[in-house]
Specification:
Length: about 170
């Protein structure tokens, strides 16, 4: 299992391509046995918070840094769910089209967001580029604002008795 996670991490350096577009390589999707192993790994780590994760080969063992343990567990959780995770550095630049795909909006809307200053960007020639971390930060903030608005609407409806009204 650890070896499989290491192989996935090594693939990340070859992923200099569109984030949301078709992959340039065929991912080795987990089979049911690997999904079960990943699920058992995740459960074991969660049940044993003080556990150390080590990579072992040829009689040598190297500890995985404890602060990054969550990354390994998150990758294993994706594998357990039958998904193939991709590791991308947060400072990797994306195009307006890639950002649009990540945000599930149109490319012109992304340009509007950039011009309003909602997402930082820089120019490369005549093209706008932004760090994927900034796009994901915007997506997280947008989701939080939407959830807050929905909570407020639900609370207002509750206060006005809208849930008690009969049709």
């Amino acid at each position: 299992m650890i070896q499989r996670l290491a192989n996935i991490a090594n693939m990340s350096r070859y992923l200099d391509m569109s984030i949301a577009s078709t992959l340039q390589f065929e991912p080795n999707l987990p089979d049911q046995a690997e999904m079960d192993m990943a699920a058992a790994f995740v459960q074991f780590v969660r049940d044993n918070e003080a556990i150390d994760i080590n990579a072992t080969a040829h009689g040598k063992s190297v500890p995985f840094p404890r602060p990054y343990r969550g990354i390994v567990v998150a990758i294993a959780q994706h594998l357990a769910d039958g998904r193939f995770p991709i590791v991308v550095p947060l400072d990797r630049d994306v195009t307006t089209q890639e950002a649009a795909e990540l945000l599930n909006v149109s490319r012109p809307h992304v340009i509007t967001l950039l011009e309003r200053g909602a997402i930082r960007y820089h120019m490369v020639g005549n093209r706008r580029k932004m760090a994927i971390g900034d796009v994901l930060r915007y997506r997280r903030e947008r989701s939080a604002a939407r959830r807050k608005g929905l909570r407020e609407l639900a609370n207002e409806a509750q206060t006005l008795g809208a849930y008690d009204a009969k049709p």
